[in-house]
Amino acid sequence: MRNFLGRLKKYSKVSYFSFWFLIIFYLVSFFADILIPYHFDYQFRDKPYHPPSKIHFIDTEGRFHIKPFVYETFVDDPIFRTYKENYSVRYPIKFLVDGPERNVFFIFKTKKYLFGVDAPAGIFLFGTDTYGRDIFSRLLYGSRISLSISIIGVLISFVLGMITGGFAGYFGGITDQVLMRIVEILMVFPSFYLMLSLRAMFPLNLSSIQVYFLIVMILSLIGWAGLARIIRGMVLSIKEEDYVLAARSLGLSHWRILVFHILPNTFSYTITAITISVPGYIIGESALSLLGLGIQEPYPSWGNILSSTVGNIRVISDAPWLLLAGAFIFIILINFNILGDALRNVLDPKNW
Amino acid sequence: MDKILRCEKIRKVFIVKDFLGVNKRTTVALNDISINIEKGLNTGIVGESGSGKTTLARTMLLLIKPDAGSVYYREKEITHLSDNNLRDFRSKVRIIFQNPYKSLNPRLTIERTIKEALPSCDSHKQKVEDILAQVGIPKTYRTKYPHQLSGGERQRIAIARALAGIPECVIADEPTGNLDATTEVHILRLLEKLKEKFNLTYVFISHNLKIVSDICNKIAVMYKGRIVEEGDACDVSKNPLHPYTKALWNPDIAQPIDEKQTKYSEGCAFIDSCTSRKERCFCENPEIIEKEKNHSVACFLYE
């Protein structure tokens, strides 16, 4: 592991940064319950489309405060939904505040959150949506869904692709023919429409957990075919190598040769490929949610946060902070692409 | 004598198809080859590139299935056994490949490489270190990967892998083919040392007659998929009979192959560069016959 990081750093500083950025981002999404100030469906009914809160250090009289603070806001113009700050009371931002109990992934419970302000003021780092829900809280909470779907989906496709590609390439003949025809059938459908029709096979009123697993299954079902095809090709060429012949000459079983001698030699490609395909899963989930077929309200995901802006052109001018989910998708995407590119080089034993 | 391996009239034809499979080109890699490997007697197989030596080695181990003929291991036919049933045979007859840069899995550490070759019951760290010590590799190399080693070191690892599990016969397919002269000497010395220690029998494949006659008790000379001369090492090296063997010993007398590459479908394979060919050589193929005691040759000159 240490070698890996060293090599990654040596290969490029940017990819090293991307690696840590992604690790930290995943940790953040894991511990989102502690980090977010409000529960994801807590509504400030009187504050829809609230812009990101201004965080002050200097009060109206020009005095500097070490502790940053916010003012309470009230609706100034109900038609254009502009807010004004009430300068009479300062609400300093508190760290490690108490609040209602939350479950962190059913592992432990917490009553302490990282930060917050006293009611009636609110702190909205990224503003609020049409129901007055804090976008920051929803984005972090939603990242848990979007990121975990992509990782689980990618792992399932990876395993499926490895097994099918490995078997088809190694055993050849009828196995190869059958498996590759299945793969081709999957590949001829445009993936987005296949995704939609697969989703259409299931009823709309599923519970959110069912939808979550349904999306994982749909995305991985679409993703594995291309991977399987490429792995098959690689296995076909690797199985002619001398070291595979050597493994056969030692009397190892087919299973052992395939799993320990052939498939590991496809890793430098497959790990790169799956790293680069992670963003596709995030986008796939977002696309389904955007069309209302994915994660349902009130549960947040990056896709359905974005979907609240669809068909509402005013949002782009009046509440552009709702588009931040797109920025998050973009950042994660870029980082995975940079990392994937670097892994291609770093995971090749010849460069060690 | 105790026969370990016996090949009887094995034949292997490779068919190369061109694009769309219109034109087929066949190469007869092994043409009715019969050879015995006896316990304690090293057998050398010499011949030029493309004479089918490597194919013979791989067919003997059934890594390539022969098109016709049979392979016997201790007088038991094993030609049509599946890989799973060949497991016992393969732990007793091992192979060292020609190119140490290709024959080691780049993803496995040295320790894992050796462990793969050990019977699963005793894959202990100590065992691996013992075997590495036998081939003169320091035990600190356990955690290294093949690409971190030199060619000679890699070949030592390949030898260690072949020895793990204590085989009775090792087929060495040009083990020094890709190494420089100094390393070659070291590897050959190592092989000789190990032979005594583990009571091994080698099948030594090489294009270098000198090495083969030093190491081996018996020599078979191959040309274009046939064994043209076979006999005790001293006989074949001191008193070569077949014109091809003579040419191997003394490359200067070899006549260059005709540019026209006349294809005689029948007749002796060596006819193109033979200095003493006769009318008969063009139309008939000589059978291998025992000319002197333990010395056979396939040439009409000695009928």
UniProtKB/TrEMBL annotation, chain A:
GO biological process: transmembrane transport
Membrane-spanning residues: 20-40, 145-171, 178-197, 209-231, 258-283, 321-340
Stored CDD domains: TM_PBP2
Principal location: membrane
Compartment(s) where it occurs, according to its Swiss-Prot or TrEMBL record: Cell membrane; Membrane
PROSITE patterns xref list: ABC_TM1 (PS50928)
Pfam families reported in the protein's UniProt record: BPD_transp_1, OppC_N
A single GO cellular-component term on record: plasma membrane
InterPro entries associated with the record: MetI-like, MetI-like_sf, OppC_N
Listed PANTHER family: OPPC IN A BINDING PROTEIN-DEPENDENT TRANSPORT SYSTEM
Membership in a protein family: Belongs to the binding-protein-dependent transport system permease family.
Full protein name: Dipeptide transport system permease protein DppC
Gene behind this protein: dppC
Automatic annotation (TrEMBL), chain B:
GO-annotated molecular function: ATP binding; ATP hydrolysis activity
GO annotation, biological process: peptide transport; transmembrane transport
Domain ABC transporter intervals: 5-249
Keywords: ATP-binding, Nucleotide-binding, Transport
Gene3D superfamilies associated with the record: P-loop containing nucleotide triphosphate hydrolases
PANTHER family in alphabetical order: TRANSPORT ATP-BINDING PROTEIN
Annotated protein name in UniProt: Oligopeptide transport ATP-binding protein OppF
Organism for this UniProt entry: candidate division TA06 bacterium ADurb.Bin131
